[in-house]
Amino acid sequence: MRFKVEGATSVAPTTTGTATTVESASEVSVFNNSTTAYAVAILTAASGTVVGNVTVAGGERLTLVKSPSHAMYSVNAAVMFTPVNTKVI
Fold first, then answer.
1. CATH number of 22's domain
2. For residue 66, which of 5, 36, 83, 86 sits 20 to 30 Å off, Cα-Cα?
3. What pLDDT is recorded for position 85?
4. Whole-prediction pTM value?
């Protein structure tokens, strides 16, 4: 998949209270830098209500689309978040 990097890659926070908006991104590249599958949750805000979640297989990279105000976290710090833009020309 083709995308433009919109900010720095960061280690996923591991609790709801530290969940991040990933620089208010609406598209986030999620990479699991492990061989173990880990869950990623999207919340209405840090410590907010769960909007949805996915399990990211070991070594998998996927792009999640979310509201810029929604926050994300993972159950393990092996998961990395990068704000991206897939609508590049």
1. 2.60.120
2. 36
3. 94
4. 0.94
